[in-house]
Amino acid sequence: MDTHVKMVGPVVRGLDANLAEAVITAIETDNPDAEVLVDDQGGYIRIATPNVCRMTRASLEDALGRTFRLHQLEPQLAGFAGRMKLTDDEVVWFLERQD
Q1: How many whole angstroms separate alpha carbon 66 and alpha carbon 52?
Q2: pTM for this prediction
Q3: Could you say which of 48, 49, 58, 82 would form a disulfide bridge with 93 (CB–CB 3.0 to 4.6 Å)?
Q4: CB neighbour list of residue 91: distance below 8 Å, 6 or more residues apart
């Protein structure tokens, strides 16, 4: 991978393993052409893709096997890389500008 590529995405608290795994699965589903990096540090899991990371509510619900409102994810986020845009249907992490 190009070392100049900026990685963006969520840092999920590792307390709820089912939710963390579902977030990883949903991000892999919603970013099919991107390399998804997962760094599991035990207490938190950093998930990142190059430049833009998208996760839809539909993919997350499919992975969880139940309904889930995306705003419920915010307390589970230890942080994130990039900027975050949250709607009812998707969350996108992105860079403000390309360098």
Answers
A1: 26
A2: 0.91
A3: 82
A4: 10, 54, 55, 70, 73, 84, 85
